[in-house]
């Protein structure tokens, strides 16, 4: 309940003047609410551009991991999940996918947080940005990368249905980011 700035009287709801002293009531202006939609004028990247960038990144990281695995195998210290663990085949596949996902998560978080783009995004001329078009920080990049690295299928599928106009994955929505074209 508001009070008169001049005499301190409790003001009735919707009052424009104080009923006791007659002073005009200052109506507080609400702070602007940040929109959950991208700023007008941003050219959002299409899903196929984002998929191509993702594919370039995944292939590039997979090749790097393969080279590291082959190099360590030549040195007699294999780091491949299939040769390191004495476990059923399905366990080694899960461990292998987990290691790949962690490496991709770190890669995307660093590249998007530091440069706004991964190598795949650079090739496709797209970048990750905040909803207003400004640069993302490491925290937002990490939130966005979680979905891509660990929950991609559900992240994209739900994003298609929940945010089709904004072209956001669920974790883009949570991190308040969009993927836009580089102009």
What are the SSEs and their pairings?
Elements: H1 47-74, H2 81-84, H3 89-115, H4 119-124, E1 126-130, H5 138-150, H6 152-162, H7 170-174, E2 177-181
Antiparallel strand pairs: 1-2
Helix pairs in contact: 1-3, 3-5, 5-6
Structure, explained:
This protein has 183 residues and is mainly alpha-helical. The chain folds into 2 domains: 1-32; 47-181, no CATH class. Helices cover 51% and strands 5% of the residues. It has 7 helices and 2 strands, in the order H-H-H-H-E-H-H-H-E. It has helices at residues 47-74, 81-84, 89-115, 119-124, 138-150, 152-162, 170-174, and strands spanning 126-130, 177-181. Helix 3 runs antiparallel to helix 5 and helix 5 (138-150) crosses helix 6 (152-162). The protein is elongated, with a radius of gyration of 26 Å. Mean pLDDT is 83; it is low at 31-35.
């Amino acid at each position: 309940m508001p009070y008169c700035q001049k005499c301190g009287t409790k003001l009735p709801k919707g009052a424009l003047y104080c009923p006791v002293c007659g002073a005009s009531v200052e109506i507080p202006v609400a702070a602007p609410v940040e929109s959950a939609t991208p700023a007008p004028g941003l050219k959002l990247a299409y899903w196929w551009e984002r998929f191509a960038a993702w594919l370039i990144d995944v292939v590039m990281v997979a090749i790097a991991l393969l080279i590291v695995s082959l190099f360590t195998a030549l040195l007699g210290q294999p780091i491949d999940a299939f040769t390191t663990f004495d476990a059923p085949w399905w366990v080694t596949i899960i461990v292998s996918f987990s290691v790949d996902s962690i490496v991709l998560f770190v890669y995307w978080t660093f590249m998007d947080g530091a440069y706004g783009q991964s190598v795949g995004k650079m090739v496709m001329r797209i970048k990750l940005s905040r909803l207003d078009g400004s640069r993302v920080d490491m925290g937002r990049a990490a939130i966005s990368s979680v979905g891509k690295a660990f929950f991609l299928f559900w992240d994209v599928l739900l994003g298609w249905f929940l945010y089709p106009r904004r072209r956001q994955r669920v974790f883009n929505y949570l991190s308040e980011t969009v993927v836009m074209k580089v102009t």
